[in-house]
Design goal:
Layout (H helix, E strand, L loop, with lengths): L9 H6 L4 H10 L12 H9 L6 E6 L8 H8 L1 H15 L4 E5 L7 H15 L5 E5 L9 H8 L23 E5 H12 L7 E8 L5 E6 L4 H8 L5 E6 L5 E3 L8 H6 L8 E6 L4 H15 L5 H18 L5 H17 L10 H19 L1
Parallel strand pairs: 1-2, 1-4, 2-3, 5-9
Antiparallel strand pairs: 5-6, 7-8, 7-9
């Protein structure tokens, strides 16, 4: 696995011989983009922060709250040294006086080993990097970058309106770079290894399968290959891209890449595929996802707070076979309305599973109403 390649602090030695601009150009040349879901060019994000008047701060998103996603945990357990080297390297290039690792609350058991690795590398490098591990607030919304910043500052983990973006005004009014664990781990690797491949991604595969797990494969991999790796228990009918990415039908020859997935009105996110087999009705799947969103809504904005509950109530009614044609239309309307009017990324995807479910599996919803 490329993500497990050790760099043994060689990247920190190399970066001492590079000017900041040379290093940023190296990241652009190697085509490093964020692995947290958006796929934004990493060097471009760093440049945005460096253009500000104040020195930037650094935040590493290790919250990983998306259901079916477990890649960052895998890295922290198996290649923590290279990850911390990446944090140190990023701090050095950015000139960041302080870095924060925002660790998911459920990963508290990893905190001691992460902090031990920080101490060990500080001693090995004879440099005192200021890296603090912060325990996550246990909320899905805290995976969103502005919510992370609020939580680190001791506030409630609510999303903030953008602009200003964190790279302009983040922690305590300072420009702040937010990168995720996989992205930061790639930074020393691309510097040390000439054959580093920017197209490799970690896919978290789970659902109705016998071989759930984490697999490193290149973008453009066919759905059929991922299915073979997962070994489904029954014939598959759909895949859910985490919770927020939407639901797509199974097309064996489809290649997994951002362009094709976005073309299906879905989000590729962190490449978490939850397989759904023919024994499941998509309306029931949507109800389960709606329960998650209703519980995790932070309640700050009205569309998400009230709309997520309304969507769940409608799906509960439909799945209990008490729905009507009017309920189906209201469900579709509410899903669109909440997506279009909510403040943050959570609210803007509350209806994604419903809308893509209707688009590809409307018969499953109608089957519940017509019974």
């Amino acid at each position: 696995m490329q993500i497990l390649r050790k760099t043994n602090l060689e990247a920190l030695k190399l970066v001492d011989r590079l000017e900041r601009e040379e290093f940023l150009e190296k990241m652009e040349e190697k085509n490093l983009v964020g692995r947290g879901g958006a796929g934004f060019p990493t060097a471009k994000k760093w440049r945005m922060a460096l253009e500000q008047d104040k020195k930037p701060l650094l935040v590493i998103n290790a919250d990983e709250g998306e259901p079916g996603t477990f890649k960052d945990k895998f890295i922290l357990e198996n290649n923590c040294e290279t990850f911390i080297e990446g944090v140190m390297l990023a701090s050095k290039v950015l000139g960041a006086e302080k870095a924060f690792i925002y660790l998911r609350g459920e990963y508290e058991y990893l905190r001691e080993s992460v902090e031990e690795t920080i101490d060990e590398l500080d001693k090995k490098t004879s440099k005192d990097f200021d890296i603090t591990v912060v325990r996550g607030a246990g909320a899905y919304v805290c995976g969103e970058e502005t919510s992370i910043l609020q939580s680190i500052m001791g506030e409630r983990g609510n999303s903030m309106k953008k602009p200003p973006y964190p790279t302009e005004e983040g922690l305590w009014g300072r420009p702040t770079v937010v990168n995720n664990v996989e992205t930061v781990t790639c930074i020393p690797q691309l510097l040390v290894y000439d054959d580093w491949n920017p197209d490799l991604r970690l896919f978290s595969l789970s659902g109705n399968v016998s071989n759930a797990g984490l697999f490193e494969v290149p973008l453009g991999v066919k759905v059929s290959t991922l299915i073979d790796l997962s070994r489904p228990k029954n014939s598959l009918k759909a895949m859910s891209l985490g919770n927020f990415g939407g639901i797509m039908p199974i097309e064996q020859d489809m290649e997994i890449n951002p362009e094709l997935i976005d073309g299906e009105n879905c989000f590729h996110g962190t490449y978490s595929l939850v397989w759904i087999d023919e024994t499941n009705n998509i309306a029931d799947v949507c109800k389960n996802i709606a329960e998650f969103y209703t519980y995790e809504s932070c309640g700050k904005c009205t569309p998400c707070r009230e709309g997520s509950k309304e969507i769940l109530d409608l799906l509960t009614k439909i799945c209990n076979e008490r729905g009507s044609e009017e309920d189906l239309e209201q469900l579709r309307y509410m899903a669109k309305h909440v997506n279009q009017t909510s403040l943050c990324g959570l609210g803007k995807t509350v209806g994604k599973h419903v809308l893509t479910g209707f688009e590809h599996f409307e018969e499953d919803f109608r089957e519940k109403v017509e019974l």
